[in-house]
Structure formats: C-alpha cells, structure tokens
Amino acid sequence: MPEILIVGTLIVFALAFDYVNGFHDAANSIATVVSTRVLTPGKAVVWAAFFNFLAAFGFGTAVARTVGSGMVDVRIVTFAVIFAGLTGAIVWDLITWYVGLPTSSSHALVGGYAGAAVAKAGYSAIIASGWSLTLIYILIAPLMGLTIGFGMTLIILWTFRGFTPGRVDAWFRRLQLLSAALYSLGHGTNDAQKTMGIIAGVLFAAGYLHTFYIPIWVVLAAHAAIALGTLTGGWRIVHTMGIRITKLQPVGGFAAETAGAITLFTASSFGIPVNGKCCSSAPKTERAVRWRRPCCERGAANPSTPTVQAPRPARRSTRWRSRP
Question: Can you tell me the distance from the alpha carbon of 149 to that of 23, in angstroms, rounded to the nearest whole number?
C-alpha cells in the first residue's frame, strides 16, 4: 500500500477516535446542565459542541506536544505503533460507553500509545519526565476540582443566604449557561489536543514534518471531530454523570462546572493531558439547602422553584426540594 494511503488512513482513524471521544467523554460537558434542567439535552449538546470547536482558537497546543513527543520517543514511533495505540483506546471507549461507565478517554489514548511503543522497543521508548506531571495530576485534578467547587459553593450560599429561592434559581440558571460554556471550552482545549498530537506523530513518522509541530489544519480537524461527536450525544454516560452520581440545583451546577473549567485550563496551560470527568464529577458535592423566604411568597411559588418548609429543631441540616 502506498505510504500516502497509510498516512491518510491513520489520520482518519485518529479523527475517528476524536469523534468517539466526543460522544463518550465530551458528553460530560452537558451532564451537569442537563441534570439541573437549565437546558434540554438537545440544546445542551449544541451548546457544548459549539464551544468545543471554539476552543480551537487561541488556546495553544501544549497538550498536543506533550502527547505527540513528550511521553514516547518519536524516533521509534511507526505507523503500526500509532495504529495499535488508537485501536486500544477506541475499543476501550466503546466498551465503557456501552456499559455507561465514565472512564477517561485521555488516559486510554496515552496508555494505548505508550503500551504499543513499549511492545515495539521496550521501556526505553518511554520518556519518564513526560509522565510525571500526568500521573501526579491524576490525583491532583479531582482534589483540585473538589476543593474549588466546595469553596465556591460555600461562598455562594453565604453570599445569597438572605435571598429568596426563586431569585437565586433564576440568576444561576443564567449563570450556568456561562459556566457550561467555560467548561466546554476547557474540555475541548484539553481533549482535542490529544488527537492533534497523534496526527502530528503520524506526519512526523512519515517525514511530512521535519520538526514536530501542530499544523493549523490538524487543529481545526481535531476540534471539528470532537464537536461532531458531542452532537451525537452519549446519553448513557450523561445519565450516569448527571443523574446517578448526584442531583444538583443550578447553584451547585454552576460551582461544579466553574471548578472543572478552572482545573482543565490549569492543566492545559502546563501541557498536561487530564481526565475531564475527574475535573467535573469531583466538584458535584452540593448539599441541598432550604432557602428562607417570607411566608407571603410560599403560596405563590412557581412550580419550578424549590418549596420551603419550616425547619425541624432536631435537625441541623435541611434540604432544598423541588416540586415535581
């Protein structure tokens, strides 16, 4: 087979992984905003897909350079190594998507890529310095998201403690559109770059790139593929992330998405491939709160806003409940 056909096939295969990553991993971008019922699933996937693609402009390619040349010695990378790594990642993504398990496409890709390289050339193919931050961030990212989300929730609850639940709900339903956009930007910035690194590795191995860098057409193609994958949904994982793990109000959704976005942008700025699910699921720790409001407003409450019941003296914690 001519080399140009092999290169083209591997690039299409890499973009297929990016597409699978879109409906498997990027579905996480909409789980929170769907769980809080701020957006319907159809509108949410369009919202997330748009900002996943928008991340192609102005956020750099540090993660792509790490995946493409900072974790495995590019001198031993061949077409077979890239094909084997992509195959392992895609198969794992499809299996976990089928069972609705929110696993990391990012770690599946770098793990498959590294495993294929080790099978070809032994452990000398691994660049140890490129793995240190990635492995450390596996532990740091959930804790970082948890801490930021917990702190933001406390600040919000203290700041708005005297407001009626209707006003709080109305404000944060609007603000959650902003936080969902920021999270999708952060997710697209980190996740699409992993595929860019693989495609650049294909071009470098074929001799089309004399120095390792990320061409602009690779950037646009990777972001288009992950955005298209997001549009296809991934509803099994949305259900797990948005409903089965926790149920949120817009206040908690805003805090979770903002914390996840900060964690993702921090990792991307240092060129660290990170699991977006760890960044967003860890902050979802909102304890429901019963907001106070005047008795005269209770009878005229909107059905979509929380009801208010008198707190029981024997209980220190109360809940903010939503009517059916």
Answer: 25
Give Cα 228 distance to the centre of its chain. 15
Token pair listed for 169: 């709900």
Our CA angle for 244, 242, 98, nearest 5°, is 70
Q: Within 13 Å of residue 221, how many CA atoms lie on the same side as its CB? A: 18
Q: What is the pTM of this model?
A: 0.76
Phi, psi of 307 (to 5 degrees): -85, 160
Residue ranges for the chain with pLDDT beneath 50: 245, 282, 285-324
What pLDDT is stored for residue 36 in this prediction?
77
Q: Which two tokens stand for residue 156?
A: 């919000």
Q: CA-CA distance, 190 to 174, in Å (whole number)? A: 25
Amino acid 227 reads A
Per-residue pLDDT, 106? 78
Q: Report helix angle 165-205 to 250-269, nearest 10.
A: 30
Closest CA to 98 of 20, 210, 193: 20
Is-contact 55 188, C-beta < 8 A?
yes
The amino acid at residue 194 is K
d(CA 97, CA 298): 44
Q: Tell me phi and psi for residue 293, to 5 degrees.
A: -160, 160
Q: Kindly give, in sequence order, each residue whose CB lies less than 8 Å from that of residue 72, ignoring residues fewer than 6 positions away.
A: 113, 114, 117, 125, 126, 127, 130
Work out the end-to-end distance of the chain between its first and last CA atoms, rounded to an integer number of angstroms.
61
Residues facing residue 322 across a β-bridge: 306
Burial class (CB in 10 A: 0-12, 13-18, 19+), 168: buried
Asked if residue 213 lies in contact with residue 2, where contact means CB atoms within 8 angstroms, the answer is no
Are residues 231 and 18 in contact, defined by beta-carbon separation less than 8 angstroms?
A: no
126 phi/psi in degrees, rounded to 5? -85, 135
| Phi, psi of 40, rounded to the nearest 5 degrees | -75, 160
Nearest CA to 113 out of 221, 205, 237, 207 is that of 205
How far is 27 from 36, CA to CA, in rounded Å?
15
